[in-house]
Amino acid sequence: MNTEPITQESSARICDHMNKDHQDALNAYAKYYGKIKTFNSAKMISLSPASIKLKIDDQIIDIKFDHILQDCSDAHKTLVKMVKIIPAT
C-alpha cells in the first residue's frame, strides 16, 4: 500500500503511468465524467487530492473526486473505482 502523500512528483508519476498504460481509462473518463463524446486524444495532466485534470484535444477539463484523496493508495483505488462505475458500451 502506497501511503505516499499526493505531491507534484507523485502526481507526475501517476499521470505518466496513466498516459502510458491506461489510455482506455482516460478515454472513458473523458466520455463519461467529462461528457465529451468525440475527441482525438485524452491525456491526464495532473492529479490533486480533489480532482484530475484531463487535456482533451485543446481543452482542459477538471473531474472532481467524490472525496478528498488521502494518499497515493487512495488515488489508485479511486481511479479504479471510477472506471468500474462507467457502464460498458
Provide a descriptive summary of the structure in words:
The protein has about 90 residues and is α+β, with helices and mostly antiparallel strands. The chain has a single domain (about 10-85), classed as Split barrel-like (Alpha-Beta Barrel). The protein has 3 helices and 3 strands. It has a 3-stranded antiparallel sheet with strand order 1-2-3. It is globular and about 35 Å long. It starts with 7 loop residues before the first helix and ends with a helix. The mean pLDDT is about 95.
Descriptive tags:
3 strands; 89 residues; alpha+beta; Split barrel-like
Task: Give a brief rundown of this model.
With 89 residues, this protein is an alpha+beta fold. It has helices spanning 8-21, 23-32, 72-85, and strands at residues 42-47, 51-56, 59-64. The chain has a 3-stranded antiparallel beta sheet.
Secondary structure blueprint with pairings:
Layout: H1 8-21, H2 23-32, E1 42-47, E2 51-56, E3 59-64, H3 72-85
Antiparallel strand pairs: 1-2, 2-3
| Low-confidence blocks of residues | none
Helix content: 40-55%
Structural class: alpha+beta
Number of beta strands: 3
Q: Reading side by side through the largest sheet, how are the strands ordered?
A: 1-2-3
CATH architecture: Alpha-Beta Barrel
